Each structure stands twice: as C-alpha cells, then as structure tokens.
Amino acid sequence: NDLSFTCPSRFRFKDQWVWDSCFIALIWKYLDYDQALNEIKGLLLRQEQDGFICLNSRKYIWYDAVKDLSQAPVISWTILELSPPKDFLEFAFPYLVNYYKWLKKNRRCGDLFSFKTGGESGTDNSSRWDVLGPAGGDQIYFSPLNKNLICIDLSAQMCLFSKNLTRIAEILGKQDERKRFEQESKQIEQKIKDRK
C-alpha cells in the first residue's frame, strides 16, 4: 500500500513494524490524527489472505527470516485507544477478526498460546530467551521455541484482543460477534487462572 508510516530507525529498521506503528500511532494521535489512522490502516492493508500480518513490511530487511513471524496483537488495543470514527472501526473489524483467527490457529499451545520465536515477543533482548543464546542475538530472534512453551504474555494479549473485539463488535452493533468474542475472552482468562 502507499500509506505513509513512521520507521523506527532510518538506518536499521526502515520497514513498518507492527508494535512500533501501534505505539507511534498513539503519539501521532496528538500531532496528526490522520497519520495515526494511516499507521494502523497500513498494517491492516498488508494482511495476507489467511489473516497473517507479518511483524514488518518486508521491504528492506530480513524478508526470508521474518516471512512467517508476526508480533503480539496490540493493533486492536491501539485502535480503541485512538477512538476512531465508526467507519474506521467498520473498515478494521474484518481485518482484526482474521488476524485473531490466524493467531488462534498458528500460535496455539494447548489451551493457551506461544510465540514462534523470541523475536515475535517484542522482548527479544530479555534474559527470558537466554536458553537460546546471548540476549539480542539472531538465534533468539529466529530460533523456533519449544512447541510446549506457553507464553503467558501472549496468552494475556490474546485475552485482551478478544475483549477488544467484543468492544468493537458492540460499537458496530454486531451482537453475534460480540457474544462470541466475549465468551472466548472468558475462556482464555479462565485458562490463564487455571495455570496458577
């Protein structure tokens, strides 16, 4: 798409990145509201047919390495924080639902969720991933995680994602979807509580 976006670094990170664009949009909200919406619209418009949204726009770096990596689902939260007009919510809702479905299918770990790699987490410089190598190293970014490693942060983010979809569906008057996502958020929340 041809929508403008803010790159996190003009030297190394010239692509559009999911987390970065979401948090940058919250800043643009106070400076240029249209640009804030463009940051998010640009993310949604590069969604693939199966619902996947790559962690970056794959124009400049790491295309092969990131071709199947996403990031934690903060887009719906950002949209609600921006308080966009109803027509933007109507535009965004089907994209968000498809992204949610993709994450449910591809990041499921038992009853909860797991990142594919430490790089998807947004915490790839954390000691959490030291079992994979030195913090910040490429092996953390790209090495597959143990398929049985439940990531409580992604699980909580998926719970929040379903709650956000509940709110958006309610605003749009989509009662069936509202009920479905409300039920899903309660199920995820209960599974998280059951892990204590």
Structure described in brief:
This protein is mainly α and about 200 residues long. Helices cover about 55% and strands about 0% of the residues. The longest helix is centred in the middle third of the chain and has 21 residues.
List descriptors:
about 200 residues, mainly alpha, two-stranded antiparallel sheet, 8 helices
Describe the structure in your own words.
By secondary structure, this protein is mainly α. The chain contains 8 helices and 2 strands, in the order αααααββααα. It has a two-stranded antiparallel ribbon. Helix 2 packs parallel to helix 5 (about 85-105). The longest helix is centred in the middle third of the chain and has 21 residues, at about 85-105. The protein is globular and about 45 Å long. The relative contact order is 0.12. The model has no long low-confidence stretch (mean pLDDT about 85).
- Which shape, going by the Cα principal axes? globular
Class from secondary-structure proportions: mainly alpha
Instruction: Tell me roughly what share of residues is in helical segments.
Output: 40-55%
Radius of gyration: 17 Å
Largest sheet: 2 strands, antiparallel
Poorly predicted runs are: none
User: What's the number of extended β-strand segments?
Assistant: 2
Mean pLDDT: 85
Q: What string, H for helix and E for strand, traces the elements in order?
A: HHHHHEEHHH
**Adjacency order of strands in the biggest sheet:** 1-2
